[in-house]
Structures are given as C-alpha cells and as structure tokens.
C-alpha cells in the first residue's frame, strides 16, 4: 500500500503549501495509487490548511483525480465521435465481456477499472484506449482483449 | 562522401504504430553488422496514415519510407544503406520519384510545423540548426523594441489559432499597456476538441518553437513568469516540454538577463491538467493554475488587465506561439503573403473520420475545403460519398456537401454556421447519421459543462435527452423547435465560450439536414441507416439458404425457421442489434 503521508511530504517539498500546490499534490497521490480516498483528501487539507470540502470540491471537478477506488489498471476507452465512427462500441462490449464488468465498474480483484473518456486526441487512429499512462490506438475488439490479457499476466 | 542518415519517426503515433521496434531493429543491425550510418529519431511529419515512417537521407537526396515494420526495416537498411538501391515500393515521398502519396504534400505550406518530422525534438542543436532561437537572438542583438515586435506581429495579421481568432498583436499590446509589477504569459495546451490533435503533434515534434514564441511574447509584454498548461492526456508532450525547458535554461534562453538583455528575467514551467475540457477556456485555465476548480469567470476584466493571480496575463494557443519565431525571422510580410485579406498565413488541420489520409496538414488560409479533403486528404474511405465535415469540434458546426467549395478563412467559415476552431476536421460520409453526430457532440459538451451557468448545465442535458429520444425512435412533433429554442437560450445565457457554442452542432445539422431530423421523428427512419432502433431487419426470401447462422446468433431468439428452410424475423421482439445482418454470409438480410 502506498504511503500517502510520504507522497504528500515529498510533493510539498517540490510544490510548497500554497493553494496552487493542491492539484500537483493530488496528482502525485493519484499517480501512485490511482485514486484519492477521503482520508487522503483530509490529510492534504490539513497540510495545506484548507477545508476538506475545498479539497474534495477541487478533486471531484477533474476526471483524472478519481475520488472512487480504482483498480490497479485504469482502462479509459475514448467514446467521442471519431472513435465511435471507427467502432468503439464493439471494443467496449468486448472489454466488458472479458472483464465481466460494465463500463464505470472495477473488477472484484481490484485489478481493472473500465471507464469511458472524452477525446484523447487520437482521432485519426481510433478506437483508442489508455491503460494508466500507455496509449493503445487502432484497436479491434480482439486487440483490446489481448492487451487486457497481457496486463492480467503482469 | 557524407554519411547516410536514417531517421525513424517516433512521435506518439509512430511509437503506437511500432516505431520503437523499428528503431531498435535498425540500431541492432547497425551495431551487430557495424554499418556506417547516423541513426536518429524525429517526430510526426503529419503522415500518420503511413506510420511507422523511416527517412533515409543519402548524398542523392531524401527518401521517406512508409508502413515500415521490422522485416521491411532490415530490407531497406540492407538494400538502400548498404547497396545504395532505394526500395521503391515502400517509398511514400521523395523529390526523386513520383509516389501515390505526393498529393498529401502538394499544397502544404509549413510554418508552424516547419520542424516537425525534420528534427529530433529532444535535441536543442537540431532546433538551432534550423533557425531556432534566431528570432530571440535577433531581438537581443539588434535591440528590437517591445513595440516593434508587437507591430511585427500585428502586421503579420496573425490571429489566435486556438479558435477565437483574435488578432495576436492586439492582445499583446493590451498586455504591454497594463502596468503591473508582475505579468504572465501562458501557453494554452489544453487541446480537447474531439477531432483535434494538432497541438499534441506540435508539442511532441517541436517544443522549442512553442517555448521560443513564449519567450518572445514575454519580452514583448514585459512578463515575469510563464506557464504551459498541458492536458494530462498528453504524457509524451509533457515529457518533451520538460526536456526542452531544461535545455533552454541551460542555454541561457530562460533565466536572468536573458541573452544579455538587462532585466529580462523569465522562467516557464509546465502545469499538468487533470482531465477537464472547460480548462481550455482562458479564465477557467487560470483558475486551474491557481489550484481551484477550473470554472470560467466573467470578463471583463480581461486577462490582459487582471489574469493569473490578478496580474496582467497574455494567453495564446500552442500553434499561435509556434508561428512567432518564424514571423520575427522572416518578417511579417512573408507571413502575410499567405492567406486571404482578413485571414493571413497558414493553419494546421487535423484530418480524421471517414477520410483516406488521416493526419496533419498545414495549408495557406483561403484554400477550399474540397482541396483539403480530396487533394491532400485523398478523399473518402472506400470511395463513399462525402456528406459533411465537422469543423471546430463541439463548438463548431457541420459544413455540408453543397458548401464544400467554401474557402477556409475565418469569415467564410463563420458564415456557414461552423467556426474555424482549433482546426479539427471530422469528415463524414453517407453512412454517418447527422442527428446521431449532433447527439455525440452534445453528449460531450453536456458531460464537460462545468455547471456554473444553469442554461449550459441543464439546457445541454435537456437537448441531449431530446436527441437521444429522436435516435431511439421516440421523437415527437415539435422536438426540432424545442431544440432550437433551448439552443438560443443556452447561447444567450452562458458565461463562457463552451456554453455559448455548445448548441452549434445541433443548430447547423438542423439547418442543413432538417430532412434527416424529420425522417427520424415522423417516419421513424434513419436515412443513413445508422440509428439501430430505427432500422427494420428482414430476411430476403430468394437469398436465404436456411443455414441457421442468423437464428443461432440472434441474442433475443427472435428468428424462426428450420434448417434449409426459409427463415423469418419476428419483428415485435427484434431489438435491432444488427447481429443477423453482420453474420449472414449470403447477404440475405435487408435493412431499411
């Protein structure tokens, strides 16, 4: 389990404790553990001398600052127009079937979270998905499942 | 004899297409077989549909190879580098041969993208070798004044390339004239329009051009700090920006008394976004930099008066900044020589959707949409019929076939109801349903609305509900009028550009494709045969062989018929999923 206090401490050393440090600190936590728990946000609020509601308000505004528990691998499939025209529905169906969850859910073993995302900037190479920080463009249902399989075995 | 150079395209799309494997294979060959050539990497040349790309430059000229995999890489190194015989069949562009992709380059004028695909973006020397930081050095050495720089930018006619189209020089002048102890310059790299990826390519391919543009702007307005706000979805761009910034600091382009200009102190840092489209709006962007929810604020005061931390701030888009060094080096007249009377210079477009050559192009303003789509873009996939192009993403609108000869300049595009926007072109063919397309963009803006203004927050939701109903065969008389009414209210009562322009895709599709809306609502038919709920599936008796494949695959078990006998679909249970149509090997399912 990630040591959140240490992550906050390290981030404060770089970004300070002013209000503008809030997002970089939250991002640093998400980088390590993929989401922000209530306790994490309260800790950050204490360090920056903000109300925890302020911290939650900011975090919940941004889709990449998840406030719900996420799996080890967060899969984000682009759902906007170019990827739709290229067949993203079939990709999502195949992933839902393979992972046995619906989009928006996390697998029981906490290994995968399947999400849809707005434009990822790969419109000419759709359908595309992000698995954490890695980009996988020009997907087919088979290719997408193979990529997930590969992550299952990691 | 000059050493041959082999350059592998390693932009995001090159890497995704397997560019790293090709690079490593070539590196391995070079080392194992001790072949004498220089191996380097570059970024995207815009020809994304032929990635991975490998360029070989020998004493006879430059040869660009496309669709290269490890096997082909071995072949071209062996044949071209070792035996000096270019492998013609893989060449996609060269001055020495005619190739099938030549049209993609004809008609392009590369100013903002001048170095993309030509330099290694992680190597400052290569940027400097192509006139990099010459503009900044000229300013330092010749003592060009702030006012002269601004006049140059004004004379060039450059307008904001992020979508607003406001004259850049004028924006700078406002910021210069605002007196304050601190001022800021911000680069808006929060590109989020569906269909747009110009800024990503530019940042990945030539980060120094953007940074140099920012430094010049900072000098011109007297800024003391700089921020590049880059969206989190672009990890490679963020990496390369940070590398470039560190190089610029070491080389003295950033720091104190930059290039000997006394009192010109500047540092720039990258601020990573966290997935909020509205942060591309300038006041929301600044709120986000300050660590708050990225919600827009009212203007005035404009950022030039009171922006980041309440100080005068100048915000420009990535592409705008990339043009600046070129304008300073080549002069405003050279830039203004391209384009039309009111829209000068060039514009980068991202071609996506049902187009053959998806990728990036930079063209002079005034070129027609037809030229871009059919000459550079190679036309429509599978030679289907062109239907419309969405310009300007969710804030823009569609331009139908009969307006395809519209010249691309700010005013002509605005007259169609679309906007130039940041330059995404989503091309649609006869199989694209315009109602569904409008629904897509509304779904996007509805999700991305920050919620501050009621009309944007709830109005887009209601519009989306109506559009969803229409696509699900539940449209009612009066829906079109209701959409129009909501659209006008949202435009009037929203604070920021996102809300004010959110209804545009709906309004333009109603304007040009009203008959499609009516067919959905009145006849319960989708003319493009795209909205599944509006389609009827039927077995064609004379084609059916009774193979039972459709019946076996039907998820709701609504297809009847014994083996080797005619099958039929019981319509009342049919969910219009289309599985029977796609599984039938005998074309025996009719869709209408």
Topology, element by element:
The complex is a heterodimer of chains A (154) and B (592).
Chain A: H1 4-15, H2 22-33, H3 38-48, H4 52-61, E1 73-78, H5 81-85, H6 88-99, E2 112-117, E3 129-131, E4 134-136, H7 141-152
Parallel strand pairs in A: 1-2
Antiparallel strand pairs in A: 1-3, 3-4
Helix pairs in contact in A: 1-2, 2-3, 3-4, 6-7
Chain B: E1 5-9, H1 12-16, H2 19-32, E2 38-42, E3 54-58, E4 61-65, H3 70-82, E5 91-94, H4 102-105, H5 124-129, H6 134-142, H7 146-156, H8 168-177, E6 184-189, H9 198-205, H10 207-221, E7 225-230, H11 235-250, E8 268-272, H12 282-289, E9 313-317, H13 318-330, H14 332-336, E10 346-353, E11 359-364, H15 369-376, E12 386-391, E13 397-400, H16 410-415, E14 424-429, H17 434-448, H18 454-471, H19 479-493, H20 497-501, H21 504-521, E15 537-539, H22 549-553, E16 559-560, E17 568-569, H23 579-583, E18 589-591
Parallel strand pairs in B: 1-2, 6-7, 6-9, 7-8, 10-14
Antiparallel strand pairs in B: 1-3, 3-4, 4-5, 10-11, 12-13, 12-14, 15-18, 16-17
Helix pairs in contact in B: 2-3, 6-13, 7-8, 7-10, 9-11, 10-13, 17-18, 17-21, 18-19, 19-21
Structural notes for this entry:
Chain A has 154 residues and is an alpha+beta fold. Chain A has two domains: 4-61, no CATH class; 73-152, Glutaredoxin, CATH 3.40.30. Chain A is built from seven helices and four strands. Chain A is elongated. In chain B, 39% of the residues lie in helices and 15% in strands. Chain B has 23 helices and 18 strands. In chain B, strands 2-1-3-4-5 form a five-stranded mixed beta sheet, covered by helices on one side. A five-stranded mixed beta sheet of chain B has the order 11-10-14-12-13. A four-stranded parallel beta sheet of chain B has the order 8-7-6-9, with helices on both faces. The A-B interface holds A 18-24, 26-27, 57-58, 61-65, 80-82, 84-85, 117-126, 130, 133, 135-138 and B 12-13, 16-17, 48-49, 191-197, 200, 231-235, 272-277, 288-295, 350-354, 358-359, 390, 424, 426, 428, 432, 437, 440-441, 444, 447-448, 450.
């Amino acid at each position: 389990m990630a040591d959140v206090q240490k992550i906050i401490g390290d981030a404060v050393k770089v970004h300070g404790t002013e209000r503008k440090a809030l997002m970089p600190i939250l991002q640093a936590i998400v980088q390590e553990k993929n989401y922000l728990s209530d306790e994490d946000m309260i800790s950050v609020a204490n360090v920056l001398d903000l109300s925890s509601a302020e911290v939650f308000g900011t975090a919940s505004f941004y889709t990449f600052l998840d406030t719900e528990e996420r799996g080890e691998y967060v899969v984000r499939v682009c759902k906007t127009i170019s990827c739709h025209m290229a067949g993203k529905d079939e990709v999502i169906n195949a992933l839902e079937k393979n992972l046995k969850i619906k989009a928006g859910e996390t697998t029981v073993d906490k290994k995968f979270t399947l999400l849809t995302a707005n434009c990822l900037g790969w419109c000419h190479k759709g359908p595309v998905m992000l698995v954490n920080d890695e980009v996988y463009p020009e997907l087919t249902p088979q290719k997408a499942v193979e990529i997930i399989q590969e992550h299952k075995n990691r | 004899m000059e050493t041959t150079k082999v350059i592998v395209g390693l932009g995001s799309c090159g890497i995704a297409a397997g560019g790293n494997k090709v690079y490593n294979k070539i590196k391995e060959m070079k080392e194992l077989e001790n072949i004498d050539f220089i191996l380097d990497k570059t970024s995207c040349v815009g020809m994304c549909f032929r990635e991975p790309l490998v360029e070989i430059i020998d004493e006879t000229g430059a040869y660009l190879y496309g669709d290269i995999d490890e096997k082909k890489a071995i072949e071209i190194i062996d044949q071209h580098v070792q035996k000096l015989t270019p492998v013609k069949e893989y060449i996609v562009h060269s001055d020495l041969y005619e190739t099938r992709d030549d049209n993609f380059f004809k008609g392009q004028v590369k100013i903002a993208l001048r170095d993309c695909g030509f330099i290694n973006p992680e190597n400052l020397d290569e940027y400097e070798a192509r006139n990099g930081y010459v503009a900044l050095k000229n300013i330092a050495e010749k003592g060009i004044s702030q006012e002269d720089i601004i006049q140059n930018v004004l004379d060039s006619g450059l307008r904001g390339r992020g979508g607003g189209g406001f004259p850049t020089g004028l924006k700078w002048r406002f910021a210069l004239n605002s007196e304050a102890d601190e001022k800021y310059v911000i680069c808006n790299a929060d590109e989020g329009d569906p269909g747009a990826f110009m800024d990503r390519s530019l940042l990945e391919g030539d980060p120094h051009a953007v940074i140099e543009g920012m430094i010049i702007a900072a000098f011109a307005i007297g800024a003391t700090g700089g921020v590049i706000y880059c969206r989190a979805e672009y990890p490679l761009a963020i990496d390369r920006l940070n590398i470039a910034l560190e190089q610029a600091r070491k080389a003295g382009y950033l720091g104190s008394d930059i290039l000997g200009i006394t009192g010109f102190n500047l540092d720039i840092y990258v601020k990573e976004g966290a997935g909020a489209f509205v942060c591309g709006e300038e006041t929301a962007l600044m709120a986000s930099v300050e660590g708050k929810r990225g919600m827009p604020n009212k203007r005035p005061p404009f950022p030039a008066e009171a922006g980041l931390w309440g100080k005068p701030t100048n915000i420009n888009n990535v592409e705008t900044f990339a043009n600046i060094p070129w304008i300073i080096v080549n002069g405003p007249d050279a830039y203004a020589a391209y384009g039309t009377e009111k829209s000068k210079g060039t514009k980068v477009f991202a071609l996506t959707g049902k187009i053959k050559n998806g990728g990036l192009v930079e063209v002079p303003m005034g070129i027609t949409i037809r030229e871009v789509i059919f000459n550079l873009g190679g036309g429509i996939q599978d030679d289907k019929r062109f239907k419309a192009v969405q310009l300007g993403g969710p804030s823009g609108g569609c331009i139908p076939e009969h307006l395809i000869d519209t010249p691309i300049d700010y005013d002509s595009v605005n007259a169609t109801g679309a906007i130039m926007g940041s330059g995404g072109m989503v091309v649609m063919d006869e199989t694209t349903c315009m109602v569904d397309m409008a629904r897509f963009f509304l779904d996007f803006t509805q999700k991305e609305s920050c919620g501050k203004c009621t009309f944007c927050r709830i109005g887009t939701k209601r519009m989306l509900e109506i559009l969803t109903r229409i696509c699900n065969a539940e449209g009612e008389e009066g829906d079109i009028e209701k959409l129009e009414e909501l659209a006008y209210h949202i435009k009037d009562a929203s604070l920021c550009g996102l809300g004010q322009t959110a209804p545009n895709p709906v309004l333009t599709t109603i304007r040009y494709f009203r008959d499609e809306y009516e067919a959905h609502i009145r006849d319960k038919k989708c003319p493009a045969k795209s909205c599944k709920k509006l389609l009827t599936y039927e077995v064609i008796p004379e084609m059916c062989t009774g193979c039972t494949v459709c019946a076996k695959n039907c998820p709701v078990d609504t297809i009847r018929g014994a083996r080797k006998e005619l099958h039929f679909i019981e319509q009342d249970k049919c969910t219009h999923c289309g599985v029977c149509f796609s599984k039938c090997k005998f074309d025996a399912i009719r869709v209408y």
